[in-house]
């Protein structure tokens, strides 16, 4: 069983100019800042990782799971050409009764993005997934 504090996945990824440009266009990030990384760019690599964690590692039923919350904390700029290491750590895995009946499983996972070159922490992201109980609205 996965316990709070356990590292449940780790992945390295480059901050590629092409992916960065696609993302910047999608979120309408100003072109006047060609060397800045949009604040939510870390979703690009973590989206696939989150999907795998939700279904394979944590065993949540994707059909009953919704995105609950996302929070970011920044420590240093992420730059094009950086190689980042993303570590996913379980923060909590709780079950509670929903207001409209049924039980909900609420899972919080923290992602830390560090520079592979320096080990410096650049960004911390916390995501919350909520699995609605069978029969709940």
TrEMBL record:
Q: Where does the record place the FAS1-like dehydratase domain?
A: 5-115
Highest taxon of source: Bacteria
One Pfam family here: FAS1_DH_region
UniProt-recorded name of the protein? FAS1-like dehydratase domain-containing protein
Query: What is the originating organism of this protein?
Result: Kumtagia ephedrae
């Amino acid at each position: 069983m996965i316990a709070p504090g356990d590292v449940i996945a780790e992945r390295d990824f480059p901050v590629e100019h092409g992916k960065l440009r696609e993302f910047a266009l999608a979120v309408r990030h100003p072109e006047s800042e060609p060397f800045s990384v949009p604040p939510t760019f870390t979703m690009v690599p973590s989206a696939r990782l989150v999907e795998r964690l939700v279904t394979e590692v944590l065993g949540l039923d994707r059909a009953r799971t919704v995105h609950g919350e996302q929070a970011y904390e920044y420590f240093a700029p992420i730059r094009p050409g950086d190689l980042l290491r993303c570590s996913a750590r379980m923060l909590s895995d709780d079950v509670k009764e929903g207001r409209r009946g049924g039980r909900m499983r609420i899972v919080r996972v923290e992602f830390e993005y560090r520079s592979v070159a320096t080990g410096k922490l650049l960004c911390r992201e916390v995501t919350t997934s909520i699995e609605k109980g069978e029969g709940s609205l």
